[in-house]
């Protein structure tokens, strides 16, 4: 069955960096676009980053552009989110999400990993 | 302030029909397909509807979606206690070049 397992969350201080990882299995990872979606405490879902199946295109919303980077290793079925200059408002559960290429919906979701930015 | 507008809450008694609206603009709902997600606290969100009105296998046919112009709607018929959850609409936005979500609607079964 499909599994997306996030790791790397934790408590960090404002201004520091953190890298999240997502291990994928149960589907053809290399044919899926992948995303990170987050949910801040008491808030709704927010799309954070996207990467095409082959890594050729990456997109970010204005709220994280220039601070977050997304990457993937198709040989290892892994997705990454490198977060820098972290702010209190980045505190959230971060979900790893898969999308059949160009399907325009989020097919597979992980259980999420909590990132807390606090001094 | 979310790009897609949803009511914060909706409710109904068991067996009733509940609708959740999602209002957008020409750069998202007006030109792109809409998807809907069910999110129970502490769990992973789950896709209920994609391409405006398509249900993935395994999703009960009590859930249906529709779209007209720059608005979309999710309907839950034969409401059940296990349907109590947060529901989100989402779409790609051509102007923002990214995905946008509604703020979510909490559905309560009375």
Q: Mind summarizing the main beta sheet of chain A?
A: 7 strands, mixed
Count of β-strands of chain A: 11
* Multimer state: heterodimer
Order of helices and strands of chain B: EEEEEEEEE
Look at the helices and sheets of chain A and give the structural class: mainly beta
Give the overall form of chain A.
globular
Low-confidence runs of chain A: none
Q: Name the chain pair with the biggest interface and residue counts per chain.
A: A-B, 20 and 28 residues
The radius of gyration of chain B is 13 Å
Estimated share of beta-strand residues of chain A: over 45%
Mean pLDDT of chain B: 96
Structural class by sheet pairing and helices of chain B: mainly beta
Helix share of residues of chain A?
under 10%
The rounded distance between the terminal residues' Cα atoms of chain B is 29 Å
Number of strands of chain B: 9
End-to-end Cα distance of chain A = 40 Å
Largest sheet of chain B: 6 strands, mixed
Mean pLDDT of chain A: 96
Layout: helices, strands, pairs:
The complex is a heterodimer of chains A (119) and B (110).
Chain A: E1 3-7, E2 10-12, E3 18-25, E4 32-39, E5 45-51, E6 58-59, E7 68-73, E8 78-83, E9 92-100, E10 108-109, E11 113-117
Parallel strand pairs in A: 2-11
Antiparallel strand pairs in A: 1-3, 3-8, 4-5, 4-9, 5-6, 7-8, 9-10, 9-11
Chain B: E1 9-12, E2 18-23, E3 34-39, E4 46-49, E5 63-68, E6 71-76, E7 85-93, E8 98-101, E9 105-109
Parallel strand pairs in B: 1-9
Antiparallel strand pairs in B: 2-6, 3-4, 3-7, 5-6, 7-8, 7-9
Word description of this protein:
The complex is a heterodimer of chains A (119) and B (110). With 119 residues, chain A is an all-beta fold. Chain A is 0% helix and 51% strand. Chain A is built from no helices and 11 strands. In chain A, strands 2, 4, 5, 6, 9, 10 and 11 form a 7-stranded mixed sheet that branches. A 4-stranded antiparallel sheet of chain A has the order 1-3-8-7, with no helix packed on it. The mean pLDDT of chain A is 96. Chain B is globular and about 40 Å long. The N and C termini of chain B lie far apart (29 Å). The model of chain B has no long low-confidence stretch (mean pLDDT 96). Chains A and B meet through strand 5 of A and strand 3, strand 7 and strand 8 of B.
